[in-house]
């Protein structure tokens, strides 16, 4: 356990994990929570200006070390260092590494830290002449942060930056697949001047369930922030309810991607590549169900297949690689199951469709046509590089298909009809809509979903999630 970035037992957690000597558990989690509670007594009383300055130093250090942070992410989960350059001009700017995403969130949360000095309260007129009602905003306290493996840097900085800016202290449980990015960020935070106990990291693989339970049920913890699957989000929500904690849950998605007859097909293809194949399809806002209107179906399918066939799958450290491996064997098995089910239902494989023979968990980027609306790939989140195309005829039909799911994180559509743009954007039951774009994930937007995709927002409104509003009624005036 990292206790405020410093190891509480003077043992390197990273080395401990590498040597597989032991796995941290409930005892260490309680110790981390207690350390965060003790640190909150002072950190929670610091000025917003002080927290702003510390976060600015952290941002500068992440910039200074972004090449190392990017390599660490590639080594942990396989992402290409230059993932921003996906297949021929799809992204307009080359990201040197996925650590750039983490730096982007730190930059924005630094701005939130600047806004912390302007987290104004209100004066609320009273019906009584001798009473004055005012509200103030205060940090919520100790926060439990649980993050996924697909964005090891960005998911932590998006949550942690807001928590620190608000004056909270944190206990972080990174996923067992990608612990080192979390440890690297906390080490940089120490160098930036974050005091001991403010940030605590609990790494574990064997004791994930027990550690997660403690982080949700411990009465000292006042808020839980989680990004991951819907099933786990529901479990953590139930555990947090035992003490009525405030929660932010960014759960699974099953994003529709709609191409209407009047769309710019080249732009639609670029958008599909950007939001379907980013991270080899392993992102929560990936296009999962691609609906194409009959009039442009054949044209869109052929152009998309041509682009995808040019992808180069391989080692993320190779600058020619456009797409890396899937995270583990279970991910491959799910993709295989979805593709097999679609083909058995009548779908045609235009590109890919199989595991690559090279060692590792590599799947060939795939385009399927004529996928039945009821296929598994349309009813479950695939989390892999499979573009499943389903034909539709009318706007009403496709909106019903898009909304016919229990989740609602993101949705995308392409159309040049202004009236349709407004109608469909308002009709889609999702928290975020990309209209004529496949890229919506930037630090400044309110990020989150509706229905079973979660609760709360991060990013643009993130700092509010880590603060309480307190009423003070002044009498005797």
UniProtKB/TrEMBL annotation:
GO terms for cellular component: cytoplasm. Keywords: Oxidoreductase. One of its GO terms (molecular function) is succinate-semialdehyde dehydrogenase (NAD+) activity. Residues 22-471 form the Aldehyde dehydrogenase domain. The keyword Oxidoreductase applies. The active site is at 250. Pathway: Amino-acid degradation; 4-aminobutanoate degradation. Pfam families: Aldedh. It comes from the Eukaryota. GO terms for biological process: gamma-aminobutyric acid catabolic process. Belongs to the aldehyde dehydrogenase family. This is Succinate-semialdehyde dehydrogenase.
């Amino acid at each position: 356990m990292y206790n405020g970035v410093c190891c509480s037992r003077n043992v390197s957690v990273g080395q401990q994990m590498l040597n597989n000597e032991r796995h941290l558990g409930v005892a260490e989690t309680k110790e981390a929570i207690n350390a965060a509670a003790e640190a909150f007594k002072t950190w929670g009383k610091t000025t917003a200006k002080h927290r702003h300055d510390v976060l600015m130093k952290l941002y500068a250090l992440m910039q200074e070390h972004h090449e190392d942070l990017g390599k660490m992410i590639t080594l942990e989960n396989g992402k290409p260092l230059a993932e921003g350059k996906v297949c021929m001009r799809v992204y307009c700017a080359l990201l040197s590494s996925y650590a750039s995403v983490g730096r982007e969130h730190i930059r924005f949360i630094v701005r939130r830290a600047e806004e912390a000095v302007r987290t104004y309260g209100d004066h609320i007129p009273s019906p009584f002449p001798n009473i004055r009602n005012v509200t103030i905003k205060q940090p919520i306290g100790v926060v439990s942060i649980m993050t996924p493996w697909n964005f090891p840097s960005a998911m932590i900085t998006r949550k942690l930056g807001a928590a620190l800016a608000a004056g909270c202290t944190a206990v972080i449980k990174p996923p067992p697949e990608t612990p080192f990015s979390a440890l690297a960020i906390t080490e940089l935070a120490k160098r930036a001047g974050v005091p001991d106990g403010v940030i605590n990291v609990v790494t574990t693989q064997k004791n994930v369930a027990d550690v997660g339970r403690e982080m949700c049920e411990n009465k000292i913890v006042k808020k839980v922030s989680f990004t991951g699957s819907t099933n786990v989000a529901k479990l953590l929500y139930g555990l947090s309810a035992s003490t009525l904690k405030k929660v932010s849950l960014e759960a699974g998605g099953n994003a529709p991607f709609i191409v209407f007859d009047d769309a710019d097909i080249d732009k639609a293809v670029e958008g599909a590549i950007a939001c379907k194949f980013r991270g080899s399809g392993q992102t929560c806002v990936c296009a999962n169900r691609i609906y194409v209107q009959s009039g442009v179906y054949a044209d869109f399918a052929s152009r998309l297949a041509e682009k995808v066939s040019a992808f180069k799958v391989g080692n993320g450290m190779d600058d020619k690689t456009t797409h890396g491996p899937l995270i583990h064997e279970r991910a491959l098995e799910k993709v295989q199951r979805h593709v097999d089910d679609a083909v058995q239902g009548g779908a045609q494989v235009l590109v890919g469709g199989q595991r690559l023979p090279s060692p590792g968990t590599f799947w060939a980027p795939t385009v399927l046509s004529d996928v039945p609306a009821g296929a598994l790939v349309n009813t479950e989140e695939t989390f892999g590089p499979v573009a499943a195309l389903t034909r539709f005829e009318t706007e009403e039909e496709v909106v019903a298909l898009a909304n016919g799911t229990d989740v609602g994180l993101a949705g995308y559509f392409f159309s040049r009809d202004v009236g349709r743009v407004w109608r469909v954007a308002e009709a889609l039951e999702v928290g975020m809509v990309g209209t004529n774009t496949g890229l919506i994930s930037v630090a400044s937007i309110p990020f989150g979903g509706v229905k079973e995709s979660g609760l709360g927002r991060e990013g643009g409104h993130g700092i509010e999630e880590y603060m309480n509003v307190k009423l003070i009624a002044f009498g005797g005036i």
